[in-house]
Amino acid sequence: MRYYILIVFVFIVTSCKHKQEESNEVMKLPYFNSSDFTPEWGKARHKIPEFSFTNQEGETVTNKTYENKIYIADFFFASCPGICPKLTENMSNLQEVYKNDEDIMLLSHTVMPWKDSIPVLKKYAQKNHVNVKKWHLVTGDKDALYKIARTGYFADEDFIKTQDESNFIHTENFILIDKKGYIRGVYNGTLEIDVDRLKRHIKILKREEG
């Protein structure tokens, strides 16, 4: 009898827990308006600024390229021996997951434009099976790239600490941008668990934006 009561009790607690989890499901993503990435609901104040870079095919890539698109942005360099291969692998996986979804795009900025020329990026793109219709690898003016990394995507923690504009940018962040150009999520692009969280958040964002 006691055993039966215990089973019933566990069943009730488990059912309540599942209902609570369902009721607590996130229905809308926050906005991130500052470099400390404090989530703010219903307060869209920081927008990715205007940019113009050149991709692996020598084509100009601007905000217009990503107009009315959800996109994931990151920062890398082709000769990076550390975290970049993992970042690229996970971006490649995202490319595969969303290959048939026209609403989702990817954008990778080099942080070493003095080395990552268009031919270098094209070779890197071919090696990693990058689809230029889905994923742009961009290079350009160093100051413009570093400025948008720091003031646009809040991508450089070291800069926050040092305030040294010449300091090398390196970050493992994947940044989720909505169709209007606002930051809606930040994820560690080297961790599978965070990439999975990013995928869940993309579903939420797609529902939110229709």
UniProtKB/TrEMBL annotation:
SUPFAM superfamilies: Thioredoxin-like
Domain of life of the organism encoding this protein: Bacteria
Domain Thioredoxin, residue spans: 42-207
Entry similarity comment: Belongs to the SCO1/2 family.
Protein name, entry field: SCO family protein
InterPro entries registered for this protein in UniProt: SCO1/SenC, Thioredoxin-like_sf, Thioredoxin_domain
The entry's keywords: Copper
Keyword Cell cycle: no
Organism this protein belongs to: Flavivirga jejuensis
